[in-house]
Amino acid sequence: MDPISVKRMLLWFCIIASTHGKQCGQVDDNYRFDCHPELDASQQKCEARGCCWAPGKSPARDHAVGVEFDVPYCYYPLDYPGYVNGVPTPTEYGFTVNLTRTTKSYHPKDVMNLKMDVLYETDSRLHIKIYDADRRRFEVPIQTPPFTSKAGNPTYDVQLAPTSGFTVTRKTSKEVVFNTTINPGFIFCDQFIQISSSLSSSYIYGLGEHRSSLALPIDWRRFTFWARDQSPSPNINLYGVHPLYYNLEPNGDTHGVFLLNSNAMDAILQPAPAITYRTIGGILDFYIFLGHDPIDVVKQYQDVVGKPFMPPLWALGFHLCRWGYNSVNGTMAVVERMREASIPQDVQWNDIDYMEGEKDFTLNPTTYKNLTKLVADLHASGLHYVPIFYPAISSSQSPGSYPPYDTGVTDNIFTKADDGSIFIGKVWPGDAAYPDWFHPNATRWWQTLARKFHNAVDFDGMWLDMNEPSNFVDGRLQGGCLNNNTYDNPPYVPGVGGNSLYSKTLCPSARQHAGLHYDVHSLYGLSEVRISYTTLTNIRKKRPFIISRSTFPSSGRYAGHWLGDNVSEWPEMHASIIGILNFNMFGMPMVGADICGFGGNTTEELCTRWMQLGAFYPFSRNHNSLGMVDQDPAVFSKASQDSSRDALLNRYSIIPFLYTWFQMGNANGSMMARPLFFDFPYEPALYDIDTQFMLGEELLVSPVLTEGATTVNATFPPGRWYSNGATITGEPPMTFTKTTSVVLDAPLNKINLHFRGGFVVPTMIPQQTTTKMVENPLMILLVCLDVDGTAKGHMYWDDGESIGSFENGHYTWWSFSAKNNEMMSTIDHDGFEGSSKMSFFGFLVEGVSTKPTQVTANGQTCQFEYFQTSQILDITCPKMPFNKPMTLKWS
């Protein structure tokens, strides 16, 4: 900038600083928006930006990671100059408007001319893009719905303010769901973009991946987005990036806001309530979803990013892993221990110790040379096998000795440093190169390696770890990152762990086929799972199963997620529930935590309670770290084994119910694990509950989360609830007209499960593997009558592994309904040949207030037993095919 321009800039700052006195005093503390988010703010620096300075509650203000903020000392005056709205021009899908500013902001490289496209995509989905009017900028390369036609009857109204900013209002309630006029500090520079909006209430959820409460704190809390190899901890960015939030409105309606941006970003919540986004690249690409309830918003979000993948049936069983089996024999010993204890297991995993020198696509020639035989033995027993894979490829061996690196060099698929050489970092195998999953040769390269390895080890799924991408050094192994580079060291650095963008990862100046790593860093895990999904599909010709550590919006189309390197401590169980609920909000229902904890040594009581909880994670896997005590459920006392077995048998019995919900998620975005208030959005007493959760609409899980506890303080939404006790002679049904807290007995051998009245839940006689269960499926219908004697339900079934079963019609779909002392089963679609093998084993009808004298099924007399205390009717009928209509009557 020339000296005259500098003088003009300083003069402008002085003028606005001297004229803002009354504007500063009019700003309520909760509505102060931070004008100096960088470190070391001072009055002089603040006022040089034309902003207001006034001390807040604390004597000093520190932006270090992990330190909570409070009222900003430096904040924008009400008349801070910004972008001015032009005259809107109607378009085929809404309207467009030019935004211009005549004075530069305090950040370098202002974009003075912006364009805002307002797209009425559906009646309840609004799409707003704000971008450089003169120069193309990076946009996230994920598939989103194409524009087909303008919404015919939108439920929202968009209004431009007279000068700057805009509002989005729900037409029915007049609730303002997005309002950028509250903060004049809208800034759009090359490497600093900031925009704020009001929130409809203080109840906001989402903004992942972070360790926090379910209902997010709005006490000036900062949530940073930048994928990082970081064990779960509060106030720091973790493995994935999901800039999506859900906000409850005062009348119980819900809306969601999704910012499609992959650059490093902060989101700050403050008590106004309001949110401020600060991102250091890309554009502002907002989707706003208006729903009547949170589940509707989840579905709308998945309409944009894609529906979750349909898992194979075996993936719903119990998984077991550890780092440190140390050999094939050590792995198989645990499998045999599980068999001897008759504890269900469907999948055995191996961590990094199966590799030679921690290198992908290798086997330790001493300890794992017989892995091929182990996998064959697992398959013969009806189990499945999943090994770990890392993205980083060892680069230090002599040429010609390690094909994954040699062919990667030939195919030119490795990420490049800023000087054009292969970027070398350090991970488990030592010096390592990082595949560029956006490169057009990457799919062929990865698939060739995976196919060759699969020919030797017949694996069934892929576990993708360390794909943030992780690095054991900051930046390049030799030289780190360039200090004078504005990508490695941008003008503003969000609150990332390590205080630099390249902490524990690649230099942002590294080059990939889709752009600078600066732009695509948080897409690394997504880009790997997309290729791995295609690879596994082509190799096995069956439904893929992939679990990934790093995730981004649309990852759920290809993979599930585990919550990372937790520890064997009691609070981690509570945290796992919150993480699982968040990822279901993010369109990733196949999610779980390492049961009993990854790091540290568990105790028998902790692991017993965690097995009870983990049995009802959508993705149920016990996994622990090298050097820790064994924690597979068969290693503990008989009492603990019995408890874990009972919990897992309960899980296996409801696999038809779980499988149906996964299919509905795949077909229409229906949500698997959900907070209690998602089904009861007009019950404020449920808004903070994050120690319990629902599976589908039907099942309430209330685990013990504290050491030594033998009771649970559980909250029940309105309705009728039936206990899944140890015996059918257990507790009577509970009926509530309003949200109610109840103290439940919870001895060490019990987890409290309650089925919701008004639903029919399909169940199956459990066995030790899902493979055995589907050989001769024996079905039991659990009919949970509502107070009016009605119930309804559905069930989906296919062969459990074929690709496109639903799309090709190769499935069977049942509907169940009950009223007036009868239950009907109808077949809406029968395209799965195997449904003819399925038969009714019996029925449990809950909520029958008086003992009947007769029970019939399709006119045939059935045997029954009635339990007055629990109001359960236990029915056994002559064998009937499950794929034929059936009418059950009791009178």
**Which of globular, elongated, flat, extended, rod-shaped describes the shape?**
globular
Average residue pLDDT: 94
CATH architecture of the domain at 86-95 and 104-305: Sandwich
Low-confidence stretches: 1-22, 59-67
**Total number of strands:** 53
In short:
This protein has 891 residues and is an alpha+beta fold. It is 19% helix and 27% strand. Among the domains are: 3-75, Spasmolytic Protein, domain 1 (Irregular); 86-95 and 104-305, glycosyl hydrolase (family 31) (Immunoglobulin-like, Sandwich).
Task: Report on this structure.
The structure is a single chain. Strands 3, 4, 5, 6, 7, 13, 15, 16 and 19 form a nine-stranded antiparallel β-sheet that branches. The protein has 16 helices and 53 strands. Helix 11 links the parallel strand 30 and strand 31 (591-592). Helices cover 19% and strands 27% of the residues. Among the domains are: 3-75, Spasmolytic Protein, domain 1, CATH 4.10.110; 86-95 and 104-305, glycosyl hydrolase (family 31) (Immunoglobulin-like), CATH 2.60.40. The longest helix has 17 residues, at 524-540. With 891 residues, the chain is of the alpha+beta class. Helix 8 crosses helix 10 (524-540). It is globular.
